[in-house]
Design a protein that fits this description.
The complex is a heterodimer of chains A (397) and B (291).
Chain A (H helix, E strand, L loop, with lengths): L2 H7 L2 H23 E8 L6 H20 L7 E8 L4 H14 L4 E3 L4 H13 L4 E3 L5 H4 L8 E3 L4 H16 L4 E6 L2 H16 L6 E5 L7 H9 L4 E5 L2 H14 L5 E3 L8 H5 L6 E5 L9 H13 L12 H21 L4 H10 L2 E3 L4 E3 L16 E6 L2 E4 L4
Parallel strand pairs in A: 1-2, 1-3, 3-4, 4-5, 6-7, 6-8, 8-9, 9-10
Antiparallel strand pairs in A: 10-13, 11-12, 13-14
Chain B lengths: L1 H30 L6 H18 L4 H29 L5 H19 L5 E2 L10 E3 L2 E3 L1 H23 L1 H11 L1 H6 L4 H23 L4 E2 L5 H14 L4 H22 L4 H15 L14
Antiparallel strand pairs in B: 1-4, 2-3
Helix pairs in contact in B: 1-5, 1-8, 1-9, 1-10, 2-3, 2-4, 2-8, 2-9, 3-4, 3-8, 5-6, 5-8, 6-8, 9-10, 10-11
The chains are: A alpha/beta (397), B mainly alpha (291).
């Protein structure tokens, strides 16, 4: 058919329309080919919104940096976020939408272990690489699936528990620790982990006490631990509940070392817990304070340039969300590069092929193997405490 | 030491439950309805006081009074919106409506006040820790039961010796007769709800320095307070207050002696057992329905 034939029986408008349709048809696959979609399912509203925002920022910085270098395989990255409202059911719906409708290449999870646990079976069934930048539940990566599509750049409860004991022994010469744990699945998972860590060293807890997230007074539980002879407390709870423990200790006048999971980092711990907040030593995967590596300096500079509310290290909160997400995204890009494409299985194997990456949290060497899907280990944790509103490494006064 | 510290913790928390439960008692006596969102009223007391004291920098006393006034207004609104339209038609839907208004209040606070828990300033005179029988306690922990019991006493005196109080009592005894005697029953019911939310608000302000201010701080308290109100026999003011203290002390003793895993199991089993043995509550009288 010649052009003349078209004009002979078509109006000018329909010609223009078909031109538009043609150009769209040509352009669309080109765009789809160009960008690699990265999905994120996390809490973007509610109590944990700040954490979701931190993950977003870490990802955004890494993606900006990668895209500025031309992306991977000649394609740029694009972030697609969905809110899970910290509930597993919403998380599952969001994950399905990102996998089936948005066709993301890799799916990132958020900070709630129960939400990630609900998504894990789906990603393994759909061969969708999943990266956890926060939730620490041991079973997220150790889920029994083979092949396993779930990877993580964050703390792992079981390893955290070992690290808590190791730190307590080294720093406070702990012989008989007591546990004060929030009464929920997180507390329970750590009760198991801490008990196992103690057993591995032939030790036993002086006592194990639970408290409700909304308890005003934890004095009765603490008094039990004190009379049982606890010489150190292992604390697991979010920022509000943790501050209730500290205030109760103050009222009792009991000065005892407190070694904590990373709960206090999630809010205004000093304001809530009072002057004794600084006595609580808790774990982080990264701190933007102190002497930074070149990567640390670069990331901080990029954060300050992109987000006007970040004026210094103190404004990067919660720092673990930003740092974990940044390194995780860089590792994902490397995996896709090694995979040479975006098929789920190729990316999964791509993760194993990463040899080295000079990252923010550390210099990663062989971060993932078929046996180990957790890139951050026992020796990568930083012990910190609050000095006023800032989370500083314990060594820094 | 275990028992002394449990007793002190228990009396403090118990008087909070008592104050909230007194709110149930007041409205139930006057109108046969209750505000199931007493927990939210308590939270509002703390949030308003925080907004005035920390947000606007008012002195604590003034902030507390202003907050209690707003709590009173909130109570009147609850009654007008969530109770009156349903009670008038003889419907029990006020039950759900008051739960709903509490959820709305919690979420409005979440939206405006923010998601993060905040610290309520401790009055300077009450900071530090004092030694009572070898146990370190905060002076506020001793002040709370005193304030709680004093408020219950004030309520008692108010209802016996003031005109308004007597009018309320008249409505309690016979609504229709009171109405015929020229007592404005609608107003009496409004006042009862205002008093009930003021009590809850006072509990919120008293507990705030020991606790954190956040939108869901009252939920568990509201639930326990209702158990306390039923346990005390919802028709007796002193009974309700005593049941509150008892509940708080038992809760703390169970935690101290048996461990925290048993606290809720044992406490609520005891509530059920007590009600099975005394269906009208520990201190209540059987209600006589005249037909």
């Amino acid at each position: 058919m010649t052009t003349g034939n078209i004009f002979s029986f078509a109006t000018r408008r329909s010609f223009l329309l078909s031109c538009a349709a043609l150009s769209l048809a040509l352009a669309l696959p080109a765009i789809a080919q160009e960008s690699i979609k990265i999905g994120l399912v996390t809490a973007l509203s509610g109590q944990s919104a700040r954490a979701g925002e931190a993950i977003t920022r870490g990802l955004a910085i890494a993606i900006d940096e990668l895209n500025a270098k031309g992306g991977v395989l000649g394609r740029k990255f694009e972030l697609v976020r969905r809110d899970d409202e910290a509930t597993p059911a919403k998380g599952v719906i969001a994950a399905r939408e990102l996998i089936f409708k948005e066709k993301v290449a890799v799916l990132f999870g958020g900070l709630d272990t129960p939400v990630s646990m609900a998504i894990v079976p789906i990603v393994n069934a759909e061969k969708m690489p999943f990266m956890g930048p926060w939730a620490a539940g041991t079973a997220i990566t150790r889920n029994g699936a083979s092949p396993n599509y779930v990877f993580r750049v964050s703390a792992v409860d079981e390893i955290v528990d070992k690290a808590m004991l190791q730190y307590a022994q080294k720093t406070f010469n702990t012989k008989s620790p007591g546990m004060i744990l929030v009464n929920n699945p997180w507390g329970e998972s750590n009760e198991k982990g801490l008990t196992a860590a103690l057993a591995a060293k032939g030790m036993k807890a002086a006592g194990i006490e639970k408290f409700e997230g909304n308890d005003v007074d934890v004095v009765p539980q603490l008094t039990r631990l004190k009379s049982a002879g606890a010489d150190t407390l292992f604390l697991v709870g979010n920022v509000g509940p943790s501050s209730q423990v500290v205030k109760s200790l103050d009222r009792m006048g009991w000065k005892v070392p407190v070694v904590s999971h990373w709960g206090p980092a999630g809010g205004r711990f000093t304001e809530l817990a009072g002057p004794s907040a600084k006595e609580v030593h808790f774990l982080q995967t990264y701190s933007f304070f102190g002497k930074q590596s070149p990567v640390g300096e670069k990331v901080l500079k990029m954060l300050m340039a992109k987000y006007p509310d970040i004026k210094g290290a103190g404004d990067v909160t919660p720092a673990v969300g930003v740092a974990n997400a940044y390194d995780a995204m860089q590792l994902v890009a490397l995996a896709i590069q090694k995979a040479g494409g975006t098929s789920g299985d190729a990316i999964r194997q791509g993760f194993y092929k990463i040899d080295a990456y000079d990252g923010l949290i550390k210099k990663y060497a062989k971060p993932f193997t078929p046996e180990n899907h957790d890139a951050v280990g026992e020796n990568d944790y930083v012990w910190t405490h609050f000095i006023d509103n800032q989370i500083l490494p314990v060594a820094m006064k | 030491m275990l028992i002394t510290s449990a007793l002190i913790s228990g009396l403090g928390l118990g008087s909070m439950y008592g104050l909230l439960a007194l709110g149930f008692y007041i409205t139930y006596s006057v109108s046969n309805t209750v505000n199931f969102s007493q927990g939210s009223s308590m939270m509002l007391g703390a949030v308003f006081a925080y907004a005035f004291a920390v947000g606007l920098g008012w002195p604590l006393g003034l902030a507390a009074v202003a907050s209690l006034a707003l709590c009173g207004v909130y109570g009147i609104i609850v009654e007008l919106v969530a109770i009156r339209p349903f009670a008038r038609r003889g419907s029990n839907s006020w039950l759900m409506a008051t739960v709903a208004i509490g959820i709305i209040a919690d979420n409005v606070v979440l939206f405006t006040f923010g998601k993060e828990p905040r610290a309520f300033p401790m009055p300077a005179e009450l900071t530090g820790s004092i030694n009572v029988l070898g146990v370190g306690v905060s002076p506020l922990q001793l002040a709370i039961p005193v304030a709680g019991i004093a408020m219950a006493g004030l309520l008692h005196a108010f209802s016996r010796s003031t005109r308004l109080g007597k009018a309320l009592l008249a409505v309690v005894q016979n609504r229709d007769a009171a109405s015929m005697m020229g007592i404005n029953v609608g107003l009496a019911v409004s006042i009862a709800f205002a008093v009930s939310t003021v009590f809850a608000g006072a509990a919120g302000i008293l507990i705030a320095p020991l606790f954190n201010v956040q939108s869901d701080m009252g939920t568990l308290f509201g639930l326990k307070a209702f158990a306390v109100a039923i346990l005390g026999g919802i028709t007796s003011a002193w009974g309700v207050m005593l049941a509150g203290l008892l509940f708080g002390v038992i809760e703390a003793l169970v935690t101290a002696l048996l461990g925290s895993s048993y606290t809720q199991i044992v406490t609520f089993t005891l509530v059920i057992a007590a009600l099975a043995l005394r269906p009208d509550g520990l201190f209540g009288r059987a209600e006589v329905k005249k037909v």
